[in-house]
Amino acid sequence: MAQPLVGYLLVAAILFSVGLAGALTRRNAIVVLIGIELMLNAANLNLIAFWRYGPHPEALTGMMFAIFSIAVAAAEAAVGLGLVISIHRHAQTTDLDQMNRMKG
Amino acid sequence: MGFPFWLIAALTVAGGMAAVLLRNLVHCALALTIAFAGLALLFLQLDAQFAGFVQILVYVGAVAILVVFAILLTRGSETPKDGGVFSKTWGAGLVIAAAIFAVLAWAVLESRPGLPHETGTHNASVQEIGTALMGRYVLPLEIVALLLTAALIGAVIVALHEKKEEAR
Prior knowledge:
The complex is a heterodimer.
Chain A: H1 4-25, H2 29-53, H3 61-91
Chain B: H1 3-21, H2 25-45, H3 49-73, H4 90-110, H5 126-134, H6 138-159, H7 164-167
Helix pairs in contact in B: 1-2, 2-3
C-alpha cells in the first residue's frame, strides 16, 4: 500500500468495530467495558496516525489529544469497574440481561 | 509500511478479537493486554515514543490489572451455565458493528487521494512534550488532574461497602 496512513486507519477501524461488537453483544458488564476500552484505543491510534502523517507534526496537537484521551480513558475505566463491582454487590450478578430493574 | 507493521497489526486485531470472543473472562483480560501491547508497538512505529510508553504504563500496567481485579472481585471467571456468553440481541449488535465497519472502511478508502502523506519524520522529544504541556496545554493538564482526582474519589465511594450504616 502506497500510503501508510491508510493501513493505520483501517487497523483502527477494525479495532473500533471489534470493540463495538463486543460492547453490544456480550452479556458480562466487564467485557462491555473491555469493548469500550478497545474503541477508545482505536480512536487514539487514529489521532497518533494523523499526527504523524499530517502537515504539521511539530505542533504536537494529535499527540496531546491522544495523551489526554488516555488519561480520561483511565479515569473512565476506574469508575466503570467500580460501578460493576458495586452492582455485583447489590444484585449478585454482572449479567446485563438480568439488570432489568428499571425496565418498564 | 512493511512486514513489521502487518505483523503488529495482525497481533493487535487478533488480541482485540480474542478479548471480546473468549468465554473465560480471565482469558479475555489477557487477550486485552496483548491488544494494548500491540497498540503500544504501533504507536512506537509511528515515532510517537512518549505515547507508546504511556500506553504501556497506563494500559498494560494499570487498566489491565484493574480489569483482572474486577473479574476476580465479581467472580466473573465462572462462565454462565444458562445460555452463552452472548446476549439475546447479539444478532442486532453484530449487524450494527459490521455496518459501522463498512462505513468506516468505505470512508477511509474513498478519501485515500485526499489524505495527507507527509513523509518527513518528526521525533517528538519528551522535552518538547513537557514544554507544550507546561505552556500551551497547561489548562487541559490541570483539568485532567482534577478529573483524575475526582474519578479516584468517585470510584472509591461507588465501590465502598454500604453496610456501615446498618451496623451503626
